[in-house]
Amino acid sequence: MLHCHYTTMNIPGNTSGTDVSVLERQQARMKWQQQQQEGLSNGNDHRFRARVEIKPDPDLQYEWPDFSDACQDQLIPPLMTDHNVKKRKTHEDYKQKAVSKENGVKDKKIKGCSDENSTETSLKEKPKVVETQKQEYIHVRARRGQATDSHSLAERVRREKISERMKYLQDLVPGCNKITGKAGMLDEIINYVQSLQKQVEFLSMKLATLQPRLDFDIDSLIMKEMFEIPAIGYSSEVANSTYFQVNSLLEMGNSPIDTMLRRSTGGPVSIPEAFVLSSCFNQMQPGVTWDGDLHNLYRMEIQQESTTIPFQPHKFTGSYEGSNLKMEL
Amino acid sequence: MHTCTKLKSEFIKKWMKGLQICCSSKTNMDFLERKKKIKLCADIALASAKNSTTSWCIALISEAKKHDENKTLVDNLLGPELRIKPQKTNHQMSASHKRARSKKILKKSHHVCQRMKKMGPPKSNIATYITKILVKERTQVLKRLVPGGESMDEISLIKEALDYILSLKVQVDVMRTLANATEVLNQSDSTIFD
């Protein structure tokens, strides 16, 4: 049974695709393991079928796929004794190489590979193999018509890993679609990382200028955000802000917002529960539906040290009297 | 997006918490100090919010911890469950350094051997030679950019870089919206006061 079997997984972009492929992969792996067992029982197979697999996480967008090469082969000691250089070299197309890999460290013991080539050390390999049996192994099979040198195999594995990650990069870094080749891609990555870092610097500088003190008042920020959206027609950037589900607040009614903006101290007590909710969290007003995240965030903020917000008390005291509130952060 | 918003909320929480800690320590800070504090808090908050064991996170945090003044800040931000990290960090960093060193030695000897073999046409293919040099240069630059990148081999460096890019994007998003919101706030304040 000669199989040329070198597969790398293509990671599809959508979650449904990955689910299917995960299933497929699992099935394929089961089949392969079964076949391997059969082959071993037949006793004629010192040629493994090799797989190099990379399993991604289903949510690819902001989570990083798990790069750990999980190959669930199990090395069986008797197989290693079949390492006989002459035998293998007669089959020029097929050569096996076991790359031992510690978890999370992608060292390639090339020395170990070259040791396998010598018959005298094949027996020495056995205890080593037994030790490292629990670790993950990557078995690689040389492709037809390509060099079977262990070094070049290792190189090829490494190169393919790198190119796979370059593919991820093309999705991540904007404008990378047209660039092929490592040097250009690396250049793009560098530029992008540098630009992001500079943006962080600039934004922190901007925040430092905008805020005389280091305390940021998230509550009033969010409320203001909501108000300004209808009033000024602010960019959608604000609407899509990380201040979650702002839209739910917007739905609560715009009319009291105007009154708030004009700082009417005698504002109606029936001010949308949004304000109350965002400010006083000891009493969660019923009937207001918020996302769980928002709840928790605010609760965390409120429970911390209090610093009074300088600019707003006179605006809001009238409306908040009923809700027994001091603006606290 | 769900994990993204979760990460963002975590980040904001920790960032605000860190800023408050900074705020309570000193009353008046000049502009540059404030900017530094903001950035530092943001970085640490991001690294701890990710709650992962990627090495750039660990490197960032350990870098921050080196300065005594930041130590309390970092400890508070990290939270009790993550305080085990510093010990891990030292081990990991030293281990990775050792690994890098031994790898370098291996590589050098390997390269010497290979060079002895390939004495033939050394620079017949100039294009590949140039490409190799370029790639080398750029990996060096990338190693400097990504925190904790010096002691990583190329494959994991790229992986770390991509992870770092993702988190930087999140950080920039959050900071930008906060900046815009404060700007709007101040603007509206000024208009109201007029």
TrEMBL record, chain A:
It comes from the Eukaryota. This is Uncharacterized protein. The lineage of its organism: Eukaryota, Viridiplantae, Streptophyta, Embryophyta, Tracheophyta.
Automatic annotation (TrEMBL), chain B:
It comes from the Eukaryota. This is Uncharacterized protein. It comes from Smallanthus sonchifolius. The lineage of its organism: Eukaryota, Viridiplantae, Streptophyta, Embryophyta, Tracheophyta.
